[in-house]
Amino acid sequence: MPLSGSAALQTSRASVAEDLPRLAADQLRHALRQRHDGAVLADLLEEDLRAALEGLETLRAHLQDVLGALLAPRPTPLDLLEASDDGHAQAALSSLEDTLGGLRRRLAQAAARVAAPARKP
């Protein structure tokens, strides 16, 4: 069964969003192609970007659940209490803070490597 135009567009957008960390890492690999440690740094940055995007997706999903509960025509106490269960969102937020710290360090390393001339073998 073929996808509708709307579903195909959403799938295409999701595919592009999933590929953005890989594309960004490929760009860095290209910029650091003359450095022996460039590929490793690009791989680590790609992992950080994927982890950060996963954390943001978890937070977005939680907020959608909260909005869904609040926008219900007749919210029930149970629905509101279930929406308040933010354990996964809190864990994602904590992990996101760590990931962003790692991303910041790796970006600083990438900036230094891009700016420095490549070592001759």
Tell me the layout of helices and strands:
Elements: H1 5-31, H2 38-71, H3 77-84, H4 87-115
Description:
Helix 2 runs antiparallel to helix 3. The protein has helices at 5-31, 38-71, 77-84, 87-115. It is built from four helices and no strands. The longest helix is centred in the middle third of the chain and has 34 residues, at 38-71. The chain is an all-alpha fold and 121 residues long.
Keywords:
single chain, mainly alpha, 81% helix
Put the structure in a nutshell.
It is built from four helices and no strands. With 121 residues, it is mainly alpha-helical.
Mean pLDDT over all positions: 86
Supply the helix-strand structural class: mainly alpha
In DSSP terms (H or I, runs of 4 or more residues), the helix count works out at 4
Query: What are the low-pLDDT stretches, counting only 5+ consecutive residues below 50?
Result: none
Shape: elongated
Rg (CA only): 20 Å
User: Main β-sheet: number of strands, strand sense, barrel status?
Assistant: none
Number of domains: 1
> What string, H for helix and E for strand, traces the elements in order?
HHHH
State the end-to-end distance: 56 Å
Provide the helix percentage: over 70%
Number of strands: 0
Q: Tell me the fraction of residues in β-strands, as a range.
A: under 5%
